[in-house]
Design goal:
By secondary structure, the chain is an alpha+beta fold. It is built from four helices and twelve strands. It has a six-stranded antiparallel beta barrel.
């Protein structure tokens, strides 16, 4: 074989081996470390954030008498976080409870009066019917002279009086019925006031609306609590996300709902599953301190990556990175 041919074949073998080695090293790197920041994926960085609720007392104003928790403590949903002096509200509840008992008695009295009035009307009807029969009998006999004119007139007067008594007592039945209705309305109003007292008493307890970490404590024992006065800020660790930014050039290659792999410096060997939950429609300047004018004018778009956090390992403020696969542009 000629020297030139042998040299060409040796060069060809060298190039094939070099390409194979490059491919092998790239494959091992891909397997161990995942895709690089090439056209197939991007890595974004940011900080973990969480839903926050500012907790305060509502509808009441009183000094704080119970405040056992401090910042950084985890609390379960329904935990009693704080309590205010409730003596005034308890006294008002006792007064209204007594009013309910009085109104209940008044209803029973009015119902008894109503029943008595109805019974009186029944008696009046019998009396009027009897007086009417006596009058009609005397009216029939006066023509024959069997009854005197005086007796006849007395029978007529007795019948008329009985009828008047019946009409009067029927009116009293109406009054008694309305008195029962009024007493029942008063009882219902008293019961409503008592229920309102119980609702107000519930406002003297401040409970955690969900499980989470007390990020900020803004009150102390003895301070005056009232509507709008913040007591705690509670972070919901069941719903955390990573706030990050992507360049405008990559905006068309990510989608809502697309999965992302999240890692943190705190737990570098653990990967958390996330998904893109928000992509801003408005560009922002790069949100960091930069050195050059070119970097300062770079426009980026904010995204939110919702992360599963069942063990509550991810905490607000924790730095994290996310790897997102890029889709073909325009897809």
């Amino acid at each position: 074989m000629k020297p030139r041919v042998r040299l060409g074949m040796a060069l060809l073998v060298f190039l094939v081996l070099a390409a194979a080695g490059f491919w092998f090293r790239g494959s091992i790197r891909m397997f161990l470390f995942g895709p690089g920041n090439g056209p197939g994926s991007i890595q974004v960085s940011g900080n973990i954030e969480a839903h926050q609720s500012v907790l305060s007392f509502t509808q009441i104003q009183a000094p704080i008498t119970y405040l056992p928790f401090d910042e950084g403590q985890f609390v379960k949903a329904g935990t009693l976080l704080a309590k205010v002096d409730d003596r005034y509200y308890l006294q008002q509840s006792d007064i209204d409870a007594q009013t309910v008992r009085v109104e209940q008695k008044q209803v029973r009295v009015n119902q008894s009066n109503f029943a008595a009035a109805r019974n009186t009307v029944v008696s009046d009807r019998f009396d009027w019917a009897e007086k009417r029969r006596e009058f009609l009998r005397d009216q029939a006999q006066i023509k024959d002279g069997a009854v005197s004119r005086q007796a006849y007139e007395q029978a007529f007067t007795a019948m008329a009086q009985s009828r008047a008594t019946l009409e009067r007592d029927k009116s009293l039945v109406t009054v008694a019925r309305e008195s029962v209705g009024l007493a029942q309305a008063n009882l219902a109003a008293a019961r409503s006031r008592l229920k309102l007292d119980q609702v107000t008493l519930s406002y003297t307890d401040l409970r955690a609306p969900f499980g989470g970490v007390l990020a900020i404590r803004e009150a102390e024992l003895g301070e005056l609590a009232g509507p709008g006065v913040a007591i705690f800020t509670l972070d919901d660790l069941d719903h955390v996300w990573l706030r990050a930014y992507v360049n405008e050039t990559n905006l068309g290659q990510i989608r809502l709902g697309e999965p992302a792999s999240v890692t943190t410096d705190t737990y570098p060997d653990k990967v958390y599953h996330g998904r893109i939950g928000f992509i801003s429609s408005e560009a922002e300047f790069t949100p960091k301190t930069v050195e050059t004018h070119a970097e300062r004018v770079t426009l980026v778009y904010r995204i939110r990556i919702d992360i599963d956090n069942p063990t509550h390992e991810l905490l607000p403020g924790m730095p994290a990175q996310a790897r997102i696969a890029l889709l073909p542009a325009g897809k």
